[in-house]
Amino acid sequence: SGIVGELNATMEGSKCVIENSTGFDQFSIGGSSYSEIIVYVPRDMELEGIDVDLGAGELEVSDINAGSWSVDIGAGNISMKDVVCNSLSVDCATGNLTYTGTISESGDFDMAAGNLEMTLDNFDDCNFAIEAALGHVKVGNDSYDSIGVDIEKKHEGATSTITVDAAVGSVIIK
After folding, report:
1. 124 in helix, strand or coil?
2. pLDDT value at 8 more than 50
């Protein structure tokens, strides 16, 4: 059918803000409705930071270098592939997060219900602090299956700290 809603892109100083002011942009194809916003960034561009606030849906990111990331998603799935950043903060109420790349300083993941799977290029340069109320946790070759997992895994000389708080679901970091 047609487009519902209005998409606004504005510049606030050096920050580009993209927001949907009236709800979801919905497109209907063959009876299925979905929303989609595609943003292209030049491959060699280093961004100072990216802040994503998504009520519900999917976020797919690939090949981006940004200083800091903040991702807040109410319900949905996040796929971040080949991402390089200094810091990454993710707050996900319900959904799944798949991440591959490098986090050079800090990662903070708050997953209420869902699964977190990370493949870190700099795994051996990270310290990990993981709390999981219910689910499966695997960090490197170490696996934990129980209620109330609270572990710390440290690597000597590590420069990055990854913190995970997961209520229900699995956490796999390699």
Report:
1. helix
2. yes
Query: Given its phi and psi angles, is residue 57 left (phi above 0), alpha (psi -120 to 50 degrees) or beta?
Result: left
Stretch (H or E) spanning 47: strand 46-62
CA 50 vs. chain centroid, Å, equals 11
Residue partners of 74: CB distance under 8 A and separation at least 6? 54, 55, 56, 93, 94
Q: What is the DSSP letter of 42?
A: -
Per-residue pLDDT band for 34 (boundaries 50, 70, 90) equals low
Q: State phi, psi for 2 to the nearest 5 degrees.
A: -120, -175
Q: What pTM was estimated for this model as a whole?
A: 0.83
Q: Are the CB atoms for 132 and 151 separated by under 8 Å?
A: no
